Every structure is written in structure tokens, then in C-alpha cells.
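I'm stuck. Please check this protein.
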Amino acid sequence: MRNTASLLIVLVFLTLWEISARLIDKAFILPSPVQILVRLWELKDVLFLVHLPVTLLSIVIGLTFSIILGTAIAVWMSQNASVQRAIYPILIASQMVPVIALAPIFVLWLGYTIWSKVAVAVLITFFPITVNAFDGLSSGKRETEELFLTMGATKKDVFLKYSVPIALPHFFSGLKVAVTLSVIGAAIGEWLGAQAGLGYFSRRMMTQFDGAAVFAPIFVLTFVGILLFVCVAYIEKRMLNWRTKS
């Protein structure tokens, strides 16, 4: 029932968009969904075979770095209060600087390579992973940890068998936010400096006043973001099936 309601809302939105676009009748400003889908079909080879793999590679590499870096920092902060007090404010400050302002700097440092896009993706995705993982690792009760130690468990046992299971739901919550942001990060990096990718292609089509071709990569990016979110949700459900059984 919930999915039906969501689908209905999307259909109503697309219908209103279609009607508005036809009334305005300026496709270079506001193409209709039908025009975008037709253009997407015409450009399917160049979008899916040339530019989509470049964007996906930036997303995957950026997410991989974010997961490793974010998890490591979260564990470090959870095990050392001094480290937490030193690093946590820096994490917050890192999100105060607009990514759109830093992306050109990454291009200046790393050139029009994939690594400038990866840097943007990492900057925008590691924060939710780090904060959520840290909150999860810190959510355990001190009394329970002391009970583990009293019963002969080591600190390693407490971490692996108590803290980590408690932290996993928080980690996946952060990861679901991060995967959607990774698409935005990769697209921003490609918009501001790239030689290939869906964001680059959309910007190039804007200079040609091809409105439908500008929106076509955005449709693909939206689908990629939804697909990544669904994949993470599926993995979460498989790994945390004990929550539904308890």
C-alpha cells in the first residue's frame, strides 16, 4: 500500500510536469518527461556505454574510501575520548564548507582525472558514515560492557560481540544517506571539471541548449541513486535479519 501511494504521487508529479511543459512549449528550458525519455533513448549508447561507467567508477571508489575512512575514524573516536574531542569538531567543520566551492580546488590539484571526482564524493559521503557509526558504537550501555568483562570477556570480545552488532543499524543508516550523496558528489565533480561522465555530459548539452539532453543524464543519475539505496537496504535486511526475528 505504501509503495502504491508513492507511485501515485510520482505519476501525478510527472503528469503535472508534462502538462506544464506542453503549455510553456519551450523545450530548451523545460522539456517534458516524454521528450526526455525520447532523448534518453536516442542517447542511450553514449550515456550508458561511455559516460555512465565513468560516473559509477567515481561513485564506487569514493564510497569505498568513505566506508574505510569513516569506519576507522568512528572506531578510533569510540575507543579514545581524547581523540573524539579533537576530531569531532573537525568533522563538523568539514561539512560547513560548501562542496561546490571545494570541487574546483580538487580539479586544480588533481586535474581532470577521476581522482578529483572521487575526492568530492569522499568529502560529501564520509561524514554521515562516520557520525552514524560513531553514534552506534557509543550507544552501548556501560553496565552491559562491565557485565561482559566480569564474566571473563576481553575488551576485544566486548567490541566485536556487543558494540559492533549494536552499531550496525546506525552504520547502515549512514550508508543509505551516503550512497545517495555519492551520486550528487560525483555529478558535482563532473559538472565543474571532467572529460567524461553523466554530469559532464549534462553540462555539455546545456551549452547546446538541448534541454531534454540536459535532463536525460539527471534521470539516469536518479535511477542510479535509487538502485544503490535499494541495494544497501537489501544488504542491511540480510545482515540484520535478527532484528525482525527478535
